[in-house]
Amino acid sequence: ANFAMLARGLRVVCRKAPAAPTAAGPAAALFTQHASQSATRGVAATEGDRTWVSSPLIVRTCRAVDYPPRTGGTMRMMSTEGDKPKDTEAPKQEGGGEATEDRPKTEILQQEKPAEPEQPPQPQVYDGETVVGKQEGHEFKAETQQLLDIVANSLYQDKEVFIRELISNASDALEKARYLSLTSGGQTIEDSLEVQIVVDKDNLLFMIQDNGVGMSVEELRDNLGTIARSGSKRFLNELKEAGGGAEGGSDAAKNIIGKFGVGFYSSFMVAEEVKVFSKKRGTDQGHCWTMSKKDGSYTIATAEGVAPGTKIVLKLREECKEFAEVKKVRDTVTRFSTFVTFPLVVNGSQVNDVRALWLEDASKVTEEDHSGLFKHLANQWEEPAYTLMYKADAPIDIKSVFYIPTKNDEGFGTAAQPAKVHLYSRRVLIQKNSSDLIPDYLRFVKGVVDSEDVPLSISRETMQDRSLLAKLKSVLTKRIIRWLQDEAKKNPDKYKSFYDNFGLHIKEGVAMDTTNSKALVTLLRYNTTAVAAGEEVSLASYVERMKPGQDVIYYLVTADRTAALGSPYYEAFKRAGIEVVLCYAIHDEIVMANTAEFEGKKLQSIEVAEPPEAPEDADAAKDGADAKEGEEGDKTKSEGKKSAKTDKGAKLNKEETAELITFLKDNLDRKLLLDVDVTNRLVESPAIVSEHDSAVTRRMMQMEEFKNLGISKPSGYKLLINPAHALIIDLHKVHKERPAIAKLVAAQIMDNAMIGAGILEHVQSMMPRMQDILISALHDTTYKEKEVPVEKASGETAEDVVEEVIDTPPSSDAKP
C-alpha cells in the first residue's frame, strides 16, 4: 500500500502458496480512483494475512472504515470520500471516538505503525519442474566425447561467450515459434516472447529460459546428443525448400542466428552439470535432459511442470561463480546481445532496450532514435554531428549505421582511442571495437556493421576469410569518405567545425592510406595568402584561383600566418601575386609531400621551388598584396624602412659579388655551408638557405618518432645572398677594412637564414656572437639616431618622428 501511493502504476503477480496462519491485527489495503473514471476503484486481493493492491494512480481524500472481522483478525479498509460498506456499522475512531463528518477528510484513522511492505517475490531458478519418469542413460562415443572436450575447453577464448551462445539459441527458438504461429496450422502465442535469465549466487546456479518452440524427446536426443548438429540450420534449409513463400518466412530467415550447432556446449566451460527442461509447443509432455561433465554421458527423462519452451539450468563450478553475479551477467548480455530481437530479462529487469536501427527502414528512423543509439555506442551524452545509414547487397551484404561525434575523444593529451565500430552478425556481437572494419585514421567514427556474409569461425569470434573482410573494409572506407565529401559541400560551416576537431585524422589518412589519399585530399582545409586570417579553403578552391599558365600549387609550412607573410621565401611569390597555401603544423610537410599532386597540379614548397618570374606590374601587385596584409593586421613596420634595406639601383657587381662569396666560403662553418651563390628572388631579406631535396627530412628530424630511425642530417646547406640588399652591400665594404666584425656579421647572416628556414637547432649558440656585434655597434660612431625633419601631426610625440637608420660615414670633423 505504501508503494502504491508513490507509484504511477503497480503490476502484481501472485502465486498460490500454502496457507499460513493469519495474525490478528489490521491488514492495510488501499482503494484509489482513476483520473478518467471517477467511480472506478482499485482492486485488493487478500491471501491469508497478505494484501495485494493493483491499479493505484491517484490517491483521493480517504477515511478509515472498519469491516467485520475475518478469520480472527480485523481488516481496516480505506475508501473514497462518502463511500460506506454495505451491511456494516458506522466506523469508529481509534481510541473510542465516533467518526464525524466534521473530521478532516484527508485524515487516515489508522494510528498503529503500518507493517513493513513485503518485497515482491524474486525470480526462482526452479519453478515447479520435476523429473518423474525413468532416466534413460546415453553414452557419447569416444570420438564425440573428445570433440566435446575440444568444444568446451579449446574452441572459445572467453568463458563469458557461453551467455551469448545460449541467448542466440533462445532467440532462434523464439523466432521459430513466431514464424510457426504465423503459418497455417500454427498455434497462436498468447504470452509475449522473451528470454528470462535468473542467477542464484548462493547455490551457484545460472538459468536461461525461453518460451519458444521447445523440443520433443526426439529433438532433445538429436540436437543435444549430437555435436555440430544445428536445429537452426535445418530450419533455414526447410524455409529455403519451401521457397520462403510463407508469411514471415523472410523475416525468420534473417533473424535466425545459429548455424554450427556447437554453441550449447560452450556452457560446459563454466558448468559442472547442465539440465535442460523442454516442452514442445502443442504437446502435453515435457522432458529433462541432464549431463554431467564428469560422467561424459547424458540422461533423458519425462518431467512435469515444464512450461512450453526450453529452460537451461547450469550448476556453475566454484571458479566460475562470477557468472552467478547479476551485474556480471547484465554486463555480458549488454555487451554481446543487446540488439537481439526479443526482450532479454535478467533477474526481473529487461536489459536490451535499444533497437537495431541499421536493420530498419532509414526513412522511419527518427533523430531521437539515432541519438539514443549513438549515446549507447559511444558512451556519450551529446548528440552526433553526422549520421549515416548504409546498406548494400553487393559485392557483400552490409547493413550499417555510422555516427561522428561533435568533439574529439583524443583531446587534452589523451592517447589514441580504439575504433568504436562493432562487427555484428544477425544482431549478435562478433567483434567489439573491430580494427578490421575501418582504417585507424577513421577511429573517430562510431557505429555498427552487421553482415551475414562475414565468414565466421565456429566460435564466432574470428573470421576465416581475411580477403573478404578486406573487401568489406574497402567498401566501408570509400563510403565514409564519400559521406564526408557530401557533408562538406552541403554545409561548409558545419564541416569547418568537424575539421577543427578531426582534421588531424584526415591528414593522417592522406599520409598513410595510399589507396584513398586522392579522395581524402579533397577533405583538407588550409589558410592561404589570398584569404583572410582564420579562413580555410580546399585545394580545389585554390586551383580555381590559379593564374593562367600556373601548373604548381605552392605551399609553405610555417608556425603561423605572421611568420609566413614575413618569410624570405614568400617574397618572390608576393611580388608576383601568386597565392600560397599556408600550413601551420609540422606534419603538414609530410602530408603535402605524400600528396605530390592534386587535379594534375604538382605541389611544391616555396622553400625549394623555383620562384616565378615577376610580371611587368610586379610593383603594383606587391603594393596590392601589402595593402591586403595591412587590412588583416599582418603588415609589418618594415615597409617604412625599405629604403634602408634595399636601395633601388644599388647592387654589387659581378666582381664585388665574387669577392664577397669567396670571403663567405673562407670564413663560414664548412660543416654547415656547401656553397654560396646569388639569387634574385629576394626583395627585403639579405639571404636564405636552400637545400632542394631535404625539406621533408628537416621536418622529420624535428619529430621525436623519427629520431630513432637513423635518418641522417643533411651534409650542409647552400647560402643564397641578395646582392641588392644594404646589409650585403655594406658587408662587402667592410670585409677588408674590418674583417673581425665582418666575420661576425657573416656568421649571423648564415644563422638568420637558417632561422628563416626553421632548421637552426641550437639558437643559444649564437648569443655570444650577438653580444659581440652589439658591443661593436655601440662603439661604432657610424650608428646614431637621426631626427626626421617632418611636421608633427596633432597628438604626435617627438618619439614618433625619430627613426633609427644607418647613416653615411662621418665627416673628417666629426667628434670622436
Brief write-up:
The protein is α+β, with helices and mostly antiparallel strands.
Structure description:
With 816 residues, this protein is α+β, with helices and mostly antiparallel strands. It has 22 helices and 29 strands. Strands 5, 6, 7, 8, 9, 10, 11, 12, 13 and 14 form a 10-stranded mixed β-sheet that branches. Helix 3 packs across helix 7, helix 9 runs antiparallel to helix 10 and helix 10 crosses helix 15. The C terminus is likely disordered.
What labels describe this entry?
18% strand; 29 strands; disordered C terminus; alpha+beta; 10-stranded mixed sheet; single chain; 816 residues
Query: If you compute it from the alpha carbons, what radius of gyration comes out, rounded to the nearest whole angstrom?
Result: 42 Å
Distance between the termini: 109 Å
Poorly predicted ranges (pLDDT <50, ≥5 residues)? Answer: 18-113, 245-250, 252-260, 620-625, 633-644, 783-816
Note the overall shape. Answer: elongated
Structural class: alpha+beta
Percent of residues in helices comes to 25-40%
Q: Biggest sheet, open or closed, and with what strands and sense?
A: 10 strands, mixed
Number of strands: 29
Mean pLDDT: 75
How are the elements arranged and paired?
Elements: H1 2-6, E1 43-47, E2 50-54, E3 62-66, E4 76-80, E5 130-131, E6 136-139, H2 142-153, H3 161-182, E7 195-200, E8 205-210, H4 217-224, H5 231-241, H6 249-255, E9 271-279, E10 286-292, E11 297-304, E12 309-316, H7 326-337, E13 344-346, E14 349-350, H8 367-378, E15 386-392, E16 398-404, E17 420-425, E18 428-431, E19 446-450, H9 466-490, H10 492-512, H11 517-521, E20 527-528, H12 539-544, E21 552-557, H13 561-565, H14 571-576, E22 581-583, H15 588-595, E23 597-598, E24 601-605, H16 618-632, H17 642-645, H18 654-667, E25 673-678, E26 687-690, H19 695-701, E27 717-721, H20 726-734, H21 739-757, H22 767-779, E28 783-787, E29 802-806
Parallel strand pairs: 7-13, 17-19, 21-22, 21-24, 25-27
Antiparallel strand pairs: 1-2, 3-4, 5-11, 6-11, 7-8, 8-12, 9-10, 9-12, 10-11, 13-14, 15-16, 16-19, 17-18, 20-22, 23-24, 26-27, 28-29
